[in-house]
Design a protein that fits this description.
- The protein has 101 residues and is mainly alpha-helical.
- The protein has one domain (6-100): Helix Hairpins (Orthogonal Bundle), CATH 1.10.287.70.
- The chain contains three helices and no strands.
- The model has no long low-confidence stretch (mean pLDDT 85).
């Protein structure tokens, strides 16, 4: 951006980084804004990329926490299934014993 709009960013790399972060995160303070068509095209591309990147990051974090919780549910379900299977075995034994009497 500092190459596309030297009059706006005065050729400063750190101001360009500040503008890119503010634009990509959609904060948009407005302290630095492009005025040339090339600068505006760069801004549009960065906005679209920033929205996509932010959404992907948020989805990844959410999926991480959802999958963490899912593991506990599976363990609990397996333990319950084990108890049910044991109860079925016990009932079959009782039925066989009753039939033998």
């Amino acid at each position: 951006m500092s190459l596309a709009e030297p009059q706006t960013l005065k050729g400063n790399l750190w101001d360009g980084m500040w503008w890119a972060i503010v634009t990509a995160t959609t904060v948009g303070y407005g302290d630095i804004s492009p005025v040339t068509p090339v600068g505006r095209l760069i801004a549009i591309a960065l906005m679209l990329f920033g929205i996509g990147l932010t959404a992907t990051l948020a989805a990844s974090v959410a999926a991480f926490f959802v999958n963490q919780d899912r593991g506990n549910d599976l363990e609990e379900m397996a333990a319950r299934l084990q108890r049910v299977e044991q109860l079925l075995v016990d009932l079959k034994k009782q039925r066989v014993e009753r039939d033998e009497q």
